[in-house]
Amino acid sequence: MQAEQLSPVMYIPPQMQDKRVEVIVLPVVEAATSSPATDNMKGYLKQYANPALMEQEKNAWAMNLKEKYGNL
User: Fold this and answer.
1) Considering only CA atoms, which of 35, 2, 36 is closest in space to residue 16?
2) Which end of the chain is more exposed for a tag (fewer CB within 10 A), N or C?
3) What does pTM read for this prediction?
């Protein structure tokens, strides 16, 4: 489509005038809202939590990288 055909509908920058252009229209993605079903699941797995391991989890990613790749 030629840029001048779009001029009545939308702003076309001067550097794009007299050029072929492509217009892509995408749907707006709405932010997900929590549903009652997901609210009911909050804390569901808490019974399986192991407080003794929580401190180790804080550094687990860094320790795994160090173990796998050494001191880079």
Assistant:
1) 2
2) C
3) 0.32
Q: Measured between alpha carbons, how far is 16 from 14 in angstroms, rounded to an integer?
A: 5
**Other Cβ atoms within 10 Å of 58 Cβ, number:** 9
CA dihedral 9, 14, 19, 22 (to 10 degrees): -50
How far apart, in whole angstroms, are the C-alpha atoms of residue 72 and residue 70?
Answer: 6
Query: Which residue, 11, 31, 35, is CA-closest to 21?
Result: 11
Please write the tens of the pLDDT for every residue from 11-62. 888 898 888 888 888 898 887 776 666 667 778 888 888 888 888 888 888 8
Inter-CA distances, 14 with 9, 19, 21, 36, 51, Å: 15, 10, 13, 51, 63
